[in-house]
Design a protein that fits this description.
This protein has 404 residues and is an all-alpha fold. It has one domain (18-186, 199-401): MFS general substrate transporter like domains (Growth Hormone, Chain: A, Up-down Bundle), CATH 1.20.1250. It has helices at residues 18-33, 39-45, 50-53, 55-78, 80-99, 104-114, 118-131, 134-144, 146-166, 169-189, 201-206, 208-212, 215-245, 250-257, 259-278, 280-303, 309-337, 342-367, 375-401. It is globular, with a radius of gyration of 20 Å.
């Protein structure tokens, strides 16, 4: 049920200000990628193998996906505020553990614990759905997740400068300082938004079947998973394409790499402006088609012989733009199928997205070998985007037949 309580900034007796929600989602996104430029230096520091050091990404994603499944029911039972505060506090402790880790094994353990910050991503969306009806929630989620678009664009650049100037630990010190500020802001501003419930924790998990039997929930989940899966595939394959296919320097790869994030930012802006007016299903459908169109044109341009980095990365902007339209609206749809299970739906849907995206990312990395060029990556992304279109078309038809 949407709240009618007015929002007052820095008043924990009222729902949170949108700035607080943007800060929460931003720290979660920043922890994902700010330290990536430091991986070679960290490998040397811990005297280990680079492939082992890369587990700091894979293990983080794995724990992230698992936590998303349990965070929702916990927050539906105990409330958004305490779960958010405990999650950010655990992230702060784990960040200190990463800084002072004596070896790579200890570092990886604390890096997995750092994934607790996923509460900010999961419950930031659930809080919005607590506060607003479906179409308006999609609009607000679009604004909130703009922060998630900006951070991936600037995070690695900041991390690289910090590493070069002060060493790899500086990245984690920045995460600690920003995390502490976000904790203080959340403590002061975020009032409880979840409806009170007397259900036990076990009872919350027993309500999962109520979501799992809903075809509309699966439709929105798969639309989000496939559309975002195209972007995850890009994350897994674009560095190889940039460096090995087009021969770009690391700096140039970093510059081009942010193209989808730029599109995502503007797609979120479109969601914020038009979701209330047009409805979430229309926005998801159009966003899915934007991703497909960009990849079809990219493939056609490549087949015509125009195989350049500018063409490849330029058309990836359409993928980001489509994601920016699809994800806020599909998320709102997932959370609206069973509003009393908004936290559970946010966690389960997020886990499906991250798990599917991780698989597509690994597939892209495995297929990009030899003289294949960029074609395997474009193909994987195109197939995923088409499946996203089919998912929302099915959902729209299902909704017309019967709600449930």
């Amino acid at each position: 049920m949407a709240t009618t309580i007015p929002v007052r900034f820095l008043d924990r007796e009222t729902p949170p200000h949108i700035f607080t929600l943007i800060a929460l989602t931003g720290i979660g996104a920043l922890s994902m990628n700010i330290f990536l430029p430091s991986l070679p230096q960290m490998t040397a520091y811990f005297e280990t193998d680079y492939r082992l050091m890369q587990l700091s990404v894979a293990l983080y994603l794995a724990v992230n996906a698992v936590l998303q499944i349990v965070i929702g029911p916990i927050s539906d039972r105990y409330g958004r505020r305490p779960v958010l505060l405990w999650g950010v506090a655990g992230f702060l402790v784990a960040t200190l553990g990463c800084i002072f880790a004596p070896n790579v094994e200890v570092f990886l353990v604390f890096r997995m614990i750092q994934a607790m910050v996923v509460v900010s991503l999961v419950l930031g969306r659930a809080v919005v759905r607590d506060m607003y009806p479906a179409d308006q929630a999609a609009s607000q989620i679009g604004y909130v997740t703009m922060g998630m678009a900006v951070v991936p664009m600037i995070g690695p650049a900041i991390g690289g400068v910090l590493d070069q100037s002060f060493g790899w630990q500086a990245n984690f010190w920045l995460l600690f300082v920003l995390g502490a500020l976000v904790f203080a802001l959340t403590w002061r501003d975020l009032g409880e938004t979840a409806r009170a419930t007397s259900s036990s924790f076990a009872a919350q998990f027993r309500e999962y079947p109520e979501l799992l039997v809903s075809r509309r929930f699966w439709g929105y989940c798969l639309a989000a998973a496939f559309t975002s899966g195209a972007f995850f595939a890009y994350l897994g394959g674009a560095p190889y394409v940039g460096s090995e296919v087009f021969g770009l320097s690391p700096g140039a790869v970093g510059f081009y790499f942010g193209a989808p994030a730029l599109g995502y930012f503007f797609g979120n802006w479109i969601s914020g402006r038009f979701s209330v007016r047009l409805g979430i299903n229309v926005m998801i459908l159009w966003g899915s088609w934007v991703s497909v169109a960009g990849l079809v044109i990219s493939l056609a341009t490549f087949l015509a012989g125009f195989q350049t980095a500018l063409v490849f990365f330029g058309f990836m902007t359409f993928v980001g733009f489509g994601n920016g339209m699809v994800l806020p609206n599909a998320t709102s749809g997932m959370l609206s199928v069973r509003p009393h299970l908004a936290g559970t739906a946010s966690g389960l849907g997020g886990a499906i997205m991250v798990g599917g995206g991780a698989a597509l990312s690994a597939l892209a990395g495995a297929m990009l070998t030899g003289n294949s060029g960029a074609y395997p990556l474009i193909g994987i992304m195109l197939v995923a985007s088409v499946l996203g279109v089919l998912s929302i078309v099915y959902t729209i038809r299902r909704e017309r037949q019967v709600v449930g």
